Amino acid sequence: MVDFKGAHYPKGVIVHAVFFYVRYAVSYRDLEEILAERGVSVDHATLNRWVVRYSPLIAAKAQAKKRPAAVSWRMDETYIKVKGKWTHYYRAIDQFGKTLDFMLSEHRDEAAAAAFFTRAIGNNGFPDRVVIDKSGANLAGLQNMNCLLILNGWFWLIEVLQVKYLHNIIEQITVPSRS
């Protein structure tokens, strides 16, 4: 449990304020007004301290309670416009459609794919197999992960399936628009 000892406000108020700031794109001053409308008088500097102090703790607790990912992943990348600039959107889901991770990158290359897989595996554990399309960069990123596994003494490798249509489940998931 996150320790709120020494806080001058009830736990529910702090959690609500941190959640609202992290979930919605509001400034601390706007959040101060929103809480004032609900009868809570708190300064924007205090809200900043709460977010800095409690959001990593709350995120760690939520991560610990997260259900484990399935052993079969689907991975794809697409090209989307974010704030007027085109960027690559990497995403991975499990076999049941649960989003595992996503990443925005300026480049679509082996380094970006390896960085994405490192992050996704760090957050969700190792998959038994990953289904990708015919992208050479994604294949190279997964081969990098398998090389790292061998170098670290693991003899259990990630099976890579390059099938053009098997990862269609990920293509059906909508891409968030950020213009």
UniProtKB/TrEMBL annotation:
Involved in the transposition of the insertion sequence. This is IS6 family transposase. InterPro entries: DDE_dom (IPR032874), IS_Transposase (IPR052183), RNaseH_sf (IPR036397), Transpos_IS6 (IPR047930). The keyword DNA-binding applies. Pfam families: DDE_Tnp_IS240 (PF13610). Residues 71-172 form the DDE domain. GO terms for biological process: DNA recombination; transposition. GO terms for molecular function: DNA binding.
